[in-house]
């Protein structure tokens, strides 16, 4: 059991590190082509996030399932697909991995570190309510699809990383100019902590977590088995409710 716990923690840490390192690296790279950001910069960032999550998922999916995202992990908890103890391990690994990824990027781009590479913020004219709604719907799409491929489609494991990567890519193209397109509290937390920039940071937890919960519950209620529907909202502590 303890071996399984350590594997969950370290695999999520490493997978999230890979994702955040590549995602923030793409943000930094975009600044060399467009500062301030233009369409080319947005495309570079979107590609970095989409390809980064693909690589992170492929690296560890066979170990932990590759959540790499607290919104997905909490959605799994609420729908009874994991327990509270494992949820803590998943999210701890994700947050530490994100901080390590952001730290490495800050070290390599020290000359621009004061700008907070990859820190999410609301664009001018985007209200808090708008930001929450945008992050909610982006994450709803992500988690709804994750549940569809991860639990209900046979032989879908091979394509899951590429589908999730495509969602990150397209969602990023849609929302980078608005909220930065987080969909992932760990992705937002890492650079916010490393650069100590917290403006509206709570929004990047609330929107994605709510979107993930609603997305997962919607899928289970519409397409899950009768037994799965009964487990919605039943929190298991350590494999037991």
CATH architecture: Up-down Bundle
Instruction: Output mean pLDDT.
Output: 91
- The CATH superfamily is identified as Glycerol uptake facilitator protein
> What's the CATH C level?
Mainly Alpha
Q: Describe the sheet with the most strands.
A: none
> How many helical stretches?
9
Give the topology string: H per helix, E per strand. HHHHHHHHH
Distance between the termini: 18 Å
Q: Helix proportion of residues, in percent? A: over 70%
Whole-number radius of gyration? 17 Å
Strand pairing plus helix content: what structural class?
mainly alpha
Oligomeric form:
single chain
Q: Which residue ranges are poorly predicted, with pLDDT under 50 across at least 5 consecutive positions?
A: none
Beta-strand segment tally: 0
**Principal-axis shape:** globular
CATH topology: Glycerol uptake facilitator protein
Q: Could you provide a short overview of the structure?
A:
With 241 residues, the protein is mainly α. Helices cover 70% and strands 0% of the residues.
Task: Describe the 3D structure.
With 241 residues, the chain is mainly alpha-helical. The protein has a single domain, classed as Up-down Bundle (Glycerol uptake facilitator protein). Helix content is 70%, strand content 0%. The chain contains 9 helices and no strands. α1 packs antiparallel against α2 and α5 runs antiparallel to α6. The longest helix has 32 residues. The radius of gyration is 17 Å and the shape is globular. 49% of the residues are buried. The model has no long low-confidence stretch (mean pLDDT 91).
């Amino acid at each position: 059991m303890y071996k399984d716990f350590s594997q969950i923690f370290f695999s999520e840490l490493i997978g999230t590190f890979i994702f955040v390192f590549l995602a923030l690296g793409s943000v930094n790279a975009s600044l060399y082509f467009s500062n301030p950001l233009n369409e080319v910069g947005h495309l570079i960032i979107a590609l970095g996030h989409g390809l980064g999550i693909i690589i992170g998922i492929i690296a560890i999916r066979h170990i932990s399932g590759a959540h790499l995202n607290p919104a997905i992990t909490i959605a799994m908890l609420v729908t009874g697909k994991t327990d509270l103890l494992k949820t803590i391990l998943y999210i701890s690994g994700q947050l530490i991995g994100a901080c390590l990824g952001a730290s490495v990027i800050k070290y390599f781009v020290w000359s621009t570190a004061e700008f907070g590479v990859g820190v999410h913020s609301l664009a001018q004219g985007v209200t808090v309510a708008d930001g929450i709604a945008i992050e909610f719907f982006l994450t709803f799409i992500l988690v709804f699809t994750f549940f569809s491929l991860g639990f209900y489609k046979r032989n879908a494991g091979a394509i899951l990383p590429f589908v999730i990567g495509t969602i990150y890519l397209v969602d990023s193209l849609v929302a980078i100019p608005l909220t930065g397109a987080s969909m992932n509290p760990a992705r937002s937390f890492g650079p916010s902590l490393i650069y100590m920039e917290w403006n509206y940071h709570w929004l990047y937890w609330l929107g994605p977590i709510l979107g993930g919960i609603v997305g997962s519950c919607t899928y289970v209620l519409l397409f899950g088995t009768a037994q799965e529907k009964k487990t919605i909202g039943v929190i298991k502590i350590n494999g037991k409710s």
